[in-house]
Amino acid sequence: MQSPIIGTAAGVPFTALPPAGDGPAPLIITWHMLDAPRTDTAFAAALPMHDLPAWRVHLGMPMCGARMVNGTTDAVVELITKDPLMLFLSPFVRQATEEFPAALASIREQLPIDDGPIGILGASLGGAVALRVLAETDTPLFAAALVNAAVRTRSVVDLFPGPYPYDAESERAVNDLDFVAKADAITGRAPLLVISGELDHPALRADASDLVAAVGEGAELLTIPDLAHPLADEPGLEPAPQSPQARAVDAELTAWFSRQLTAASS
Question: What is the CATH number of the domain that holds 240?
């Protein structure tokens, strides 16, 4: 098993896990959650998908990992406390989506990636980034997967204490991140696997089910027993041994992406 490659692509930190063998290989890009594991290095350890004949390049979300302010999560916590939607959820997803094309181009320059469609994977808030790439870009994709994803950001806002003071601007922002409403743009785009933890927040589980129903053909829902929302223990900043639940998710993702790679190459 080769060691991870730690690098930066157009200003975005990444942890890349090489495939077995030499020569150009397909690419799977991931975006981690803001719960544990909350960095690209920690996410790579939680869901390494080691047996895939593809590069797995785990991108860092804004203000996470190598981009933490003063090496802590304090700055992110402050934004969440002030306004979880307009200072945290919406701008983080927007920035991660906007910096993706340049990061992808840089990754292709740095690593022996083939020129075919890519796979994408997003967890929790990183799932909203993957869904934006799926619904709102023309990036060629062979497969997309989600784990405990923020399918409807309104459901995520509801997890924070107290009622959120919506106004016209924040209503537009939260509606822009409702991917059940954007299901028509996702249908037929690429095979979609939606993984939902049995113990995830009930609203997020309902949103996952609604997304699969709305997308229809090509989308499938998979429940992981005993999985809550996080994939790792706190603080989730550094690589850690896989939990049994993360190992189960990793096995399912590895098998599913393997099937999609085979189908894409046939």
Answer: 3.40.50.1820
Coil/strand/helix, residue 222: strand
Query: Could you give the number of structural domains in the chain?
Result: 1
Global pTM exceeds 0.85: yes
Dihedral angle computed from the Cα positions of residues 67, 243, 201 and 175, in that order, rounded to the nearest 10 degrees: 30
Cα distance between residue 184 and residue 191, in whole Å: 14
Contact between 260 and 63 (Cβ < 8 Å): no
For β-strands 5-9 and 12-17, DSSP reports them as antiparallel
For the segment 21-73, what is each residue's pLDDT rounded down to a tens digit? 777 999 999 999 999 999 999 999 999 999 899 999 999 999 998 998 888 88
User: Which bin fits 200, alpha (ψ -120 to 50), beta or left (φ > 0)?
Assistant: beta
| Structural domain boundaries, residue 213 | 5-265
Euclidean distance between CA atoms 208 and 194, whole angstroms: 7
Residues in the chain: 266
